[in-house]
Amino acid sequence: MGCMAERLKYKFLEEEKMVDIVVGPDAYKDLPNLLKQAESNREAVNVILSKEETYGDIAPVRLDSNGVSAFVSITRGCDNMCTFCVVPFTRGRERSRDPKSILEEVNQLAEKGYKEITLLGQNVDSYLWYGGGLKKDFETATALQQKTAVGFAQLLQLVAEARPKMRIRFSTSNPQDMSLDVIHTMAKYRNICNYIHLPVQSGSNAILKKMNRQHTREEYFELIDNIRKIIPGCGISQDMIAGFPTETEEDHQDTLNLLKYVKYDYGFMYSYSERPGTHAARKIADDIPEPTKKRRLQEIIALQREHSELRTKANIGKTFCVLIEKSSKKSDEFWSGRTGQNTVAVFPKENYQVGEFVDVKIDAATSATLIGKAIGISQEI
Ligand code: SF4
Prior knowledge:
Helices cover 33% and strands 22% of the residues. By secondary structure, the protein is of the alpha/beta class. It has three domains: 3-46, no CATH class; 69-313, Alpha-Beta Horseshoe (pyruvate-formate lyase- activating enzyme), CATH 3.80.30.20; 319-377, CATH 2.40.50.140. The chain starts with a helix and ends with a strand. Bound molecules: iron/sulfur cluster. Residues 78, 80-82, 85, 87-88, 122-123, 174 line the site of iron/sulfur cluster. Iron/sulfur cluster binds next to α4.
């Protein structure tokens, strides 16, 4: 089941004959029917991507949950067509989930004792509910529907006000869709974490264009400046691809310079590799030699590591509200949790408990972790 099954359906069913049924990401409701087909020895496949399915009525079973933080899906699919990305083909058109069902899920989680939720989608800032959630049909909605539509800033506000004692995060943001409204809403509510994962993928306008990203380097800088101005101290992380087809040394330098400008807290960095079925795989030759890709990636990673260290070390002496999630991997005598800026913090357990918000004074740091001591239960949330 799922998007990989959908992508590899012929291999699974015909070449390897590994399975009897292939169920695409949105076809779970068809399972009884598919089982019947498989029982009568017929090939059972449903990989049709739905335009409406948001899994809104499904209460997920949270098998590996720590009982403290949970993901809540708010959108499915993506209407952007970044040339390297397989999501638009495997997850379908962008559609948003009814805010009522989102709030119900958040309330259920709060009642079960969860302390933090992450509103999740491929492109959360593009969230839009107008009585229906299919983004591409918004223009044909009635005037009243358009006027009363709920966008991402309003959804954030709804959730923040409904659950003031819960910490709220969201992921992933797309630079061209992140509005000033969202940034102001984050600044207004203490329980919305000051952290944004803001993939950029490249610092070069030429490469951004080849990637079909809908933002320029300059627009990205403007967004970063606004975030820093409206939410001082906001944590920001990135996704970056090194060695995208046609990338020159100059393009790569643009990426390094962008990193130097933003000085992200951390990032997820990869060298380019083709994803079958994407526009880039079909139409753009993967022409950067592997050693060049690897060298550029190493330069990006090294620079990011410097910035991460700079950011964490700047926190020494400060106090942060940390939500305790689990025992530290390195020592059973320390708790591990995250600050609102999404940095991991560890500190002696004393009598504190998982799920508590505590103020932690930081007295040391590595490039990825803050180390400190709890000074009491936090009043921040
Ligand atoms: S990279 Fe993100 S925004 Fe671009 S198509 Fe993929 S999911 Fe959509």
